[in-house]
Write a structure and sequence with these properties.
By secondary structure, the protein is an alpha+beta fold. It has helices at 2-10, 18-51, 55-81, 88-128, 131-161, 165-171, 173-182, 184-199, 239-242, 270-284, 321-342; strands at residues 12-13, 16-17, 207-210, 213-220, 224-228, 234-238, 248-249, 256-264, 297-303, 308-316. It has a five-stranded antiparallel β-sheet with strand order 6-5-4-3-7. Helix 2 (18-51) packs antiparallel against helix 3, helix 4 (88-128) runs antiparallel to helix 5 and helix 10 (270-284) packs antiparallel against helix 11. The chain is rod-shaped, with a radius of gyration of 41 Å.
Length: 377
Protein backbone atom coordinates (compact mmCIF):
# COMPACT_ATOMS: atom_id res chain seq x y z
CA UNK A 1 0.00 0.00 0.00
CA UNK A 2 2.82 2.35 0.90
CA UNK A 3 4.58 1.45 -2.34
CA UNK A 4 1.45 2.37 -4.33
CA UNK A 5 1.09 5.66 -2.49
CA UNK A 6 4.77 6.46 -3.02
CA UNK A 7 4.38 5.75 -6.72
CA UNK A 8 1.34 8.00 -6.92
CA UNK A 9 3.12 10.70 -4.94
CA UNK A 10 6.34 10.55 -6.95
CA UNK A 11 4.89 10.18 -10.47
CA UNK A 12 3.93 13.53 -12.02
CA UNK A 13 2.49 14.93 -15.26
CA UNK A 14 3.33 18.50 -16.28
CA UNK A 15 4.59 19.19 -12.79
CA UNK A 16 1.48 17.73 -11.09
CA UNK A 17 1.62 14.61 -8.96
CA UNK A 18 -0.53 11.72 -10.09
CA UNK A 19 -2.85 12.11 -7.11
CA UNK A 20 -3.72 15.65 -8.23
CA UNK A 21 -4.67 14.28 -11.66
CA UNK A 22 -6.75 11.58 -9.97
CA UNK A 23 -8.59 14.21 -7.90
CA UNK A 24 -9.38 16.15 -11.10
CA UNK A 25 -10.65 12.97 -12.74
CA UNK A 26 -12.76 11.98 -9.73
CA UNK A 27 -14.23 15.50 -9.44
CA UNK A 28 -15.24 15.52 -13.09
CA UNK A 29 -16.62 11.97 -12.83
CA UNK A 30 -18.57 12.85 -9.70
CA UNK A 31 -20.01 15.90 -11.44
CA UNK A 32 -21.19 13.79 -14.40
CA UNK A 33 -22.70 11.12 -12.16
CA UNK A 34 -24.53 13.66 -10.01
CA UNK A 35 -25.73 15.43 -13.16
CA UNK A 36 -27.09 12.18 -14.65
CA UNK A 37 -28.93 11.34 -11.44
CA UNK A 38 -30.33 14.86 -11.16
CA UNK A 39 -31.44 14.79 -14.79
CA UNK A 40 -33.34 11.52 -14.39
CA UNK A 41 -34.99 12.82 -11.20
CA UNK A 42 -36.01 16.12 -12.82
CA UNK A 43 -37.46 14.32 -15.85
CA UNK A 44 -39.51 12.03 -13.63
CA UNK A 45 -40.78 14.95 -11.54
CA UNK A 46 -41.61 16.88 -14.72
CA UNK A 47 -43.60 13.97 -16.13
CA UNK A 48 -45.41 13.57 -12.82
CA UNK A 49 -46.35 17.25 -12.85
CA UNK A 50 -47.73 16.94 -16.39
CA UNK A 51 -49.75 13.86 -15.47
CA UNK A 52 -51.19 15.63 -12.44
CA UNK A 53 -52.48 18.55 -14.53
CA UNK A 54 -49.63 21.03 -14.03
CA UNK A 55 -48.09 21.27 -17.52
CA UNK A 56 -46.25 24.54 -16.85
CA UNK A 57 -44.41 23.09 -13.84
CA UNK A 58 -43.64 19.99 -15.89
CA UNK A 59 -42.12 22.10 -18.65
CA UNK A 60 -39.96 23.95 -16.11
CA UNK A 61 -38.56 20.67 -14.73
CA UNK A 62 -37.99 19.34 -18.25
CA UNK A 63 -36.20 22.56 -19.24
CA UNK A 64 -33.87 22.27 -16.25
CA UNK A 65 -33.21 18.55 -16.72
CA UNK A 66 -30.97 18.63 -19.80
CA UNK A 67 -28.62 21.47 -18.71
CA UNK A 68 -28.09 19.78 -15.32
CA UNK A 69 -25.37 17.44 -16.58
CA UNK A 70 -23.41 20.30 -18.10
CA UNK A 71 -23.75 22.42 -14.94
CA UNK A 72 -22.53 19.65 -12.61
CA UNK A 73 -19.70 18.84 -15.03
CA UNK A 74 -18.49 22.46 -14.93
CA UNK A 75 -18.75 22.49 -11.11
CA UNK A 76 -16.74 19.25 -10.87
CA UNK A 77 -14.17 20.58 -13.34
CA UNK A 78 -13.76 23.81 -11.39
CA UNK A 79 -13.33 21.94 -8.10
CA UNK A 80 -10.86 19.50 -9.68
CA UNK A 81 -8.81 22.32 -11.25
CA UNK A 82 -8.08 23.72 -7.80
CA UNK A 83 -5.99 20.63 -7.02
CA UNK A 84 -3.59 21.27 -9.90
CA UNK A 85 -0.40 23.28 -9.76
CA UNK A 86 -0.26 25.49 -12.82
CA UNK A 87 1.97 28.36 -13.83
CA UNK A 88 0.55 31.82 -14.39
CA UNK A 89 -0.10 31.30 -18.11
CA UNK A 90 -1.84 27.95 -17.66
CA UNK A 91 -3.80 29.31 -14.72
CA UNK A 92 -5.13 32.15 -16.89
CA UNK A 93 -6.05 29.78 -19.67
CA UNK A 94 -7.71 27.28 -17.35
CA UNK A 95 -9.76 30.03 -15.69
CA UNK A 96 -10.81 31.34 -19.09
CA UNK A 97 -11.89 27.87 -20.20
CA UNK A 98 -13.88 27.30 -17.02
CA UNK A 99 -15.47 30.75 -17.30
CA UNK A 100 -16.45 30.04 -20.93
CA UNK A 101 -18.02 26.75 -19.85
CA UNK A 102 -19.93 28.57 -17.09
CA UNK A 103 -21.25 31.09 -19.62
CA UNK A 104 -22.27 28.26 -21.95
CA UNK A 105 -24.02 26.49 -19.07
CA UNK A 106 -25.98 29.60 -18.12
CA UNK A 107 -26.83 30.20 -21.78
CA UNK A 108 -28.02 26.60 -22.15
CA UNK A 109 -30.29 26.99 -19.12
CA UNK A 110 -31.75 30.19 -20.57
CA UNK A 111 -32.11 28.48 -23.95
CA UNK A 112 -34.12 25.65 -22.41
CA UNK A 113 -36.26 28.00 -20.32
CA UNK A 114 -37.50 29.59 -23.55
CA UNK A 115 -39.85 26.58 -23.70
CA UNK A 116 -41.62 27.97 -20.63
CA UNK A 117 -42.13 31.34 -22.35
CA UNK A 118 -43.27 29.55 -25.51
CA UNK A 119 -45.87 27.54 -23.58
CA UNK A 120 -47.26 30.68 -21.96
CA UNK A 121 -47.37 32.56 -25.29
CA UNK A 122 -48.99 29.61 -27.06
CA UNK A 123 -51.68 29.43 -24.39
CA UNK A 124 -52.32 33.17 -24.68
CA UNK A 125 -52.42 32.96 -28.51
CA UNK A 126 -55.06 30.22 -28.42
CA UNK A 127 -57.27 32.41 -26.26
CA UNK A 128 -57.22 35.18 -28.89
CA UNK A 129 -58.52 32.79 -31.54
CA UNK A 130 -56.14 34.29 -34.11
CA UNK A 131 -54.20 31.84 -36.26
CA UNK A 132 -51.64 34.55 -36.94
CA UNK A 133 -50.95 34.84 -33.20
CA UNK A 134 -50.37 31.09 -33.09
CA UNK A 135 -47.97 31.46 -36.01
CA UNK A 136 -46.12 34.20 -34.11
CA UNK A 137 -45.22 31.89 -31.20
CA UNK A 138 -42.53 29.82 -32.98
CA UNK A 139 -41.06 33.01 -34.42
CA UNK A 140 -40.78 34.54 -30.95
CA UNK A 141 -39.22 31.32 -29.68
CA UNK A 142 -36.60 31.37 -32.43
CA UNK A 143 -35.89 35.07 -31.83
CA UNK A 144 -35.39 34.55 -28.11
CA UNK A 145 -33.03 31.63 -28.65
CA UNK A 146 -30.99 33.51 -31.23
CA UNK A 147 -30.79 36.50 -28.88
CA UNK A 148 -29.59 34.29 -26.03
CA UNK A 149 -26.80 32.77 -28.10
CA UNK A 150 -25.73 36.19 -29.40
CA UNK A 151 -25.40 37.39 -25.81
CA UNK A 152 -23.52 34.21 -24.90
CA UNK A 153 -21.06 34.74 -27.75
CA UNK A 154 -20.55 38.37 -26.74
CA UNK A 155 -19.88 37.31 -23.16
CA UNK A 156 -17.44 34.64 -24.36
CA UNK A 157 -15.67 37.25 -26.46
CA UNK A 158 -15.44 39.51 -23.42
CA UNK A 159 -14.06 36.65 -21.29
CA UNK A 160 -11.42 35.51 -23.78
CA UNK A 161 -10.27 39.01 -24.76
CA UNK A 162 -10.26 40.28 -21.18
CA UNK A 163 -11.80 43.52 -22.44
CA UNK A 164 -15.08 45.25 -21.52
CA UNK A 165 -18.18 44.58 -23.59
CA UNK A 166 -18.06 48.06 -25.13
CA UNK A 167 -14.63 47.35 -26.59
CA UNK A 168 -15.84 44.06 -28.04
CA UNK A 169 -18.86 45.78 -29.58
CA UNK A 170 -16.63 48.52 -30.98
CA UNK A 171 -14.42 45.90 -32.55
CA UNK A 172 -17.46 44.29 -34.13
CA UNK A 173 -18.74 47.65 -35.37
CA UNK A 174 -17.07 47.63 -38.77
CA UNK A 175 -18.01 44.03 -39.39
CA UNK A 176 -21.55 44.77 -38.22
CA UNK A 177 -21.92 47.61 -40.72
CA UNK A 178 -20.68 45.41 -43.55
CA UNK A 179 -23.01 42.63 -42.48
CA UNK A 180 -25.94 45.03 -42.25
CA UNK A 181 -25.29 46.33 -45.78
CA UNK A 182 -25.05 42.80 -47.13
CA UNK A 183 -28.21 41.70 -45.32
CA UNK A 184 -30.30 44.84 -45.79
CA UNK A 185 -32.98 42.94 -47.73
CA UNK A 186 -33.19 40.35 -44.96
CA UNK A 187 -33.47 43.09 -42.35
CA UNK A 188 -36.15 44.82 -44.44
CA UNK A 189 -38.14 41.58 -44.65
CA UNK A 190 -37.70 40.99 -40.91
CA UNK A 191 -39.20 44.36 -40.03
CA UNK A 192 -41.87 43.78 -42.66
CA UNK A 193 -42.89 40.60 -40.85
CA UNK A 194 -43.10 42.55 -37.58
CA UNK A 195 -45.44 45.03 -39.27
CA UNK A 196 -47.62 42.19 -40.56
CA UNK A 197 -47.84 40.61 -37.12
CA UNK A 198 -48.66 43.96 -35.53
CA UNK A 199 -51.30 45.08 -38.06
CA UNK A 200 -52.73 41.57 -38.72
CA UNK A 201 -54.13 42.27 -42.20
CA UNK A 202 -54.73 38.53 -42.52
CA UNK A 203 -54.48 35.28 -40.60
CA UNK A 204 -53.12 31.89 -41.48
CA UNK A 205 -55.55 30.23 -43.90
CA UNK A 206 -57.23 33.49 -44.99
CA UNK A 207 -57.80 33.97 -48.70
CA UNK A 208 -56.16 37.20 -49.83
CA UNK A 209 -55.53 39.01 -53.10
CA UNK A 210 -52.30 40.96 -53.63
CA UNK A 211 -50.73 42.05 -56.93
CA UNK A 212 -53.10 39.78 -58.84
CA UNK A 213 -52.28 36.69 -56.75
CA UNK A 214 -55.40 35.20 -55.19
CA UNK A 215 -55.39 32.35 -52.67
CA UNK A 216 -55.11 31.25 -49.04
CA UNK A 217 -52.10 32.08 -46.86
CA UNK A 218 -50.16 28.89 -46.10
CA UNK A 219 -47.23 30.18 -44.06
CA UNK A 220 -45.92 33.41 -42.56
CA UNK A 221 -42.21 33.50 -41.78
CA UNK A 222 -39.64 36.09 -40.81
CA UNK A 223 -38.55 36.56 -44.42
CA UNK A 224 -41.56 35.80 -46.58
CA UNK A 225 -45.21 34.81 -46.76
CA UNK A 226 -46.41 31.89 -48.87
CA UNK A 227 -49.72 32.07 -50.75
CA UNK A 228 -51.30 29.05 -52.43
CA UNK A 229 -53.06 30.47 -55.49
CA UNK A 230 -56.43 29.15 -56.63
CA UNK A 231 -54.61 27.49 -59.54
CA UNK A 232 -52.54 25.48 -57.04
CA UNK A 233 -49.24 27.35 -57.37
CA UNK A 234 -47.23 28.59 -54.37
CA UNK A 235 -46.24 32.26 -54.43
CA UNK A 236 -43.49 33.36 -52.03
CA UNK A 237 -43.86 37.05 -51.27
CA UNK A 238 -41.12 38.97 -49.36
CA UNK A 239 -42.59 40.47 -46.20
CA UNK A 240 -40.76 43.76 -46.73
CA UNK A 241 -42.76 44.33 -49.92
CA UNK A 242 -45.97 42.73 -48.70
CA UNK A 243 -46.17 45.11 -45.73
CA UNK A 244 -46.39 48.06 -48.17
CA UNK A 245 -48.90 46.49 -50.57
CA UNK A 246 -52.70 46.90 -50.62
CA UNK A 247 -54.00 43.53 -49.37
CA UNK A 248 -57.56 42.46 -50.16
CA UNK A 249 -58.65 39.97 -47.48
CA UNK A 250 -61.44 38.02 -49.15
CA UNK A 251 -62.02 35.85 -46.06
CA UNK A 252 -62.91 38.89 -43.93
CA UNK A 253 -65.85 40.04 -46.07
CA UNK A 254 -69.12 39.82 -44.09
CA UNK A 255 -71.18 38.88 -47.16
CA UNK A 256 -71.09 38.16 -50.88
CA UNK A 257 -72.92 40.53 -53.18
CA UNK A 258 -74.46 39.59 -56.50
CA UNK A 259 -75.57 42.07 -59.15
CA UNK A 260 -77.86 40.77 -61.90
CA UNK A 261 -78.91 42.51 -65.09
CA UNK A 262 -81.85 40.53 -66.47
CA UNK A 263 -82.58 41.57 -70.03
CA UNK A 264 -85.89 40.95 -71.84
CA UNK A 265 -86.93 41.70 -75.40
CA UNK A 266 -88.15 45.10 -76.57
CA UNK A 267 -91.47 43.75 -77.79
CA UNK A 268 -92.42 42.80 -74.22
CA UNK A 269 -95.52 44.85 -73.25
CA UNK A 270 -95.36 47.03 -70.12
CA UNK A 271 -97.71 44.69 -68.25
CA UNK A 272 -95.32 41.81 -68.82
CA UNK A 273 -92.35 43.95 -67.74
CA UNK A 274 -94.16 44.69 -64.47
CA UNK A 275 -94.88 40.99 -64.11
CA UNK A 276 -91.20 40.18 -64.71
CA UNK A 277 -90.14 42.61 -61.98
CA UNK A 278 -92.72 41.06 -59.63
CA UNK A 279 -91.41 37.55 -60.39
CA UNK A 280 -87.81 38.54 -59.60
CA UNK A 281 -88.90 40.24 -56.37
CA UNK A 282 -90.91 37.19 -55.37
CA UNK A 283 -87.98 34.81 -55.99
CA UNK A 284 -85.55 36.93 -53.96
CA UNK A 285 -87.97 37.70 -51.14
CA UNK A 286 -86.64 36.33 -47.81
CA UNK A 287 -84.02 34.28 -49.66
CA UNK A 288 -81.54 32.04 -47.89
CA UNK A 289 -78.69 34.00 -46.30
CA UNK A 290 -80.57 37.31 -46.33
CA UNK A 291 -79.71 39.94 -43.73
CA UNK A 292 -82.94 41.77 -42.72
CA UNK A 293 -81.00 45.04 -42.79
CA UNK A 294 -79.92 44.41 -46.39
CA UNK A 295 -82.98 43.20 -48.35
CA UNK A 296 -82.72 42.52 -52.10
CA UNK A 297 -83.45 45.35 -54.54
CA UNK A 298 -85.18 44.88 -57.92
CA UNK A 299 -86.03 47.69 -60.40
CA UNK A 300 -86.71 48.17 -64.10
CA UNK A 301 -83.89 50.63 -64.60
CA UNK A 302 -82.79 50.95 -68.22
CA UNK A 303 -83.64 50.82 -71.92
CA UNK A 304 -80.60 49.23 -73.48
CA UNK A 305 -79.80 49.40 -77.17
CA UNK A 306 -81.13 45.86 -77.73
CA UNK A 307 -83.08 45.00 -74.56
CA UNK A 308 -85.08 46.10 -71.55
CA UNK A 309 -83.04 45.84 -68.36
CA UNK A 310 -84.21 44.66 -64.95
CA UNK A 311 -81.59 45.39 -62.30
CA UNK A 312 -81.41 43.09 -59.22
CA UNK A 313 -78.96 43.05 -56.33
CA UNK A 314 -78.84 40.83 -53.25
CA UNK A 315 -76.36 39.81 -50.51
CA UNK A 316 -75.60 36.41 -49.01
CA UNK A 317 -74.63 36.09 -45.33
CA UNK A 318 -72.22 34.72 -44.21
CA UNK A 319 -69.68 34.78 -47.02
CA UNK A 320 -69.78 31.05 -47.78
CA UNK A 321 -68.77 30.82 -51.43
CA UNK A 322 -70.28 27.42 -52.25
CA UNK A 323 -73.53 28.01 -50.35
CA UNK A 324 -73.81 31.35 -52.18
CA UNK A 325 -73.39 29.61 -55.54
CA UNK A 326 -75.97 26.99 -54.61
CA UNK A 327 -78.44 29.83 -53.98
CA UNK A 328 -77.51 31.42 -57.33
CA UNK A 329 -78.28 28.17 -59.09
CA UNK A 330 -81.72 27.93 -57.50
CA UNK A 331 -82.45 31.56 -58.39
CA UNK A 332 -81.47 31.05 -62.02
CA UNK A 333 -83.55 27.88 -62.40
CA UNK A 334 -86.57 29.56 -60.83
CA UNK A 335 -86.19 32.64 -63.07
CA UNK A 336 -85.98 30.46 -66.16
CA UNK A 337 -89.02 28.39 -65.19
CA UNK A 338 -91.29 31.27 -64.22
CA UNK A 339 -90.34 33.49 -67.16
CA UNK A 340 -91.11 30.62 -69.53
CA UNK A 341 -94.47 30.04 -67.83
CA UNK A 342 -95.30 33.75 -68.09
CA UNK A 343 -94.23 33.95 -71.75
CA UNK A 344 -91.50 36.48 -71.03
CA UNK A 345 -88.56 36.19 -73.41
CA UNK A 346 -84.98 36.84 -72.44
CA UNK A 347 -83.15 39.18 -74.78
CA UNK A 348 -80.02 38.27 -76.69
CA UNK A 349 -78.02 40.20 -79.32
CA UNK A 350 -80.19 40.49 -82.48
CA UNK A 351 -80.63 42.66 -85.59
CA UNK A 352 -84.01 43.61 -87.12
CA UNK A 353 -84.32 44.22 -90.86
CA UNK A 354 -87.33 46.19 -92.15
CA UNK A 355 -88.38 45.26 -95.68
CA UNK A 356 -90.14 47.65 -98.04
CA UNK A 357 -92.88 45.14 -98.74
CA UNK A 358 -93.79 44.60 -95.07
CA UNK A 359 -97.44 45.67 -94.68
CA UNK A 360 -96.97 46.10 -90.93
CA UNK A 361 -94.05 48.49 -91.37
CA UNK A 362 -94.51 50.28 -94.73
CA UNK A 363 -91.65 52.35 -96.07
CA UNK A 364 -92.71 55.60 -97.78
CA UNK A 365 -90.27 55.68 -100.64
CA UNK A 366 -91.27 57.89 -103.60
CA UNK A 367 -89.78 59.69 -106.60
CA UNK A 368 -89.39 63.41 -106.12
CA UNK A 369 -90.49 65.49 -109.16
CA UNK A 370 -87.86 67.52 -110.87
CA UNK A 371 -88.17 71.17 -111.99
CA UNK A 372 -89.30 71.90 -115.52
CA UNK A 373 -86.72 71.36 -118.10
CA UNK A 374 -84.60 68.96 -116.03
CA UNK A 375 -84.28 65.25 -116.33
CA UNK A 376 -82.58 62.43 -114.55
CA UNK A 377 -80.12 62.25 -117.37
Amino acid sequence: MNTLWNTISEYSIAGNELWRIIILFLAVLAGLIVGKIARVWLEKVGQKQKDSGHPLAGIVFDAMAKPTVMITFVIGLRIGMTSLKLNETLTGWSESIVNVLIVLSIGYVAYRLVDVVTYWLDKAARLTGSKLDEMLVPLVRTSLRVTIWVLVLLQIGTTLSDKPLTSVLAGLGVGGVALALAAQDTIKNFFGSLVLFADKPFELGDRITVDGFDGPVEEVGFRSTRIRTLEGHVVTYPNGELANKPILNVSKRPNIRRIMNITITYDTPPEKVQEAVKIVKDILKDHEGMNPDMPPRVVFNDLNSASLNIFAIYWYHPADWWAYNALNERVCFELLRRFNEAGIEFAFPTQTLFLAGDSQRPLNVGIQSLPDGQSLN
